[in-house]
Amino acid sequence: MATVVVDVMPKPEILDPQGKAVLGALPRLGFGGVTDVRQGKRFELTFEGEVTDEILAEVAQMAETLLSNPVIEDFEVRVEADAR
Amino acid sequence: MATVVVDVMPKPEILDPQGKAVLGALPRLGFGGVTDVRQGKRFELTFEGEVTDEILAEVAQMAETLLSNPVIEDFEVRVEADAR
User: Which HAMAP family does its entry note (chains A, B) (predicted)?
Assistant: First the structure.
C-alpha cells in the first residue's frame, strides 16, 4: 500500500481570505512573528501496490480535473514515504 | 524568510465525507486504482528570519488551538525547505 499526497494551494496572486482570517486571529491569541498565512488543501490517495510513474501521471490528471481549480490553485504531487 | 507547513488531517477513525466524495467521483471520471482518499488542510506560515525550535513549538500550539480540532484531527508541523 502506498500513499500519494496532493497539496493544493491558492496561487500566490490570488487573495486567500481563509489564510487572512488565520493571520488576523493569531495576534489576538497571543501568537506573534507570523508575517503571512496561506490555507490550502491536502489529499492523501491510497493505492494498492507500488506507485509507478504512470500512477503519478494519472494523479496529476486527477489533481488538474477534480482536486484543484487550475485557474486559481497550484498543486503538487508527491509520494509519501511513511504513510500514516 | 522561512515557511512552516502545518498539515491537518482527519483522524483515521473519523469518517471523512469529503474524501469519500472524491473517492466516489474518481471512477466516474475514468480514474481507477485508488482504494482510499482522505482530505485535510494545509497551512503555510511565513516567518521573518530563521525557524528556531521555539518557533516550531509555538506553531505546534497554534495548530492545536486554532488550525486544527484535536478531537477529530491530527496535525503535523514541518519546515518547508523550498518555500514557494
Answer: PurS
Full DSSP string of B9-76? EE-TTS--HHHHHHHHHHHHTT---EEEEEEEEEEEEEESS---HHHHHHHHHHIIIII--TTTEEEE
Contacts of B71 (CB under 8 A, 6+ apart): none
ipTM of the modeled complex: 0.92
Total domains present in chain A: 1
Tens digits of per-residue pLDDT, A40-58? Answer: 999 999 999 899 999 999 9
The stretches of A39-79 forming alpha helices (DSSP H) are: 53-62
- DSSP code, position A81: S
What is the extent of the structural domain holding B25? 2-80
Of A9, A37, A41, the CB nearest to B45: A37
Vertex A68: Cα angle to B71 and B25 (nearest 5) = 80
Asked if the C-beta of A46 comes within 8 angstroms of chain B's C-beta atoms, the answer is: yes
**CA of B72, closest CA in chain A: separation in Å?**
15
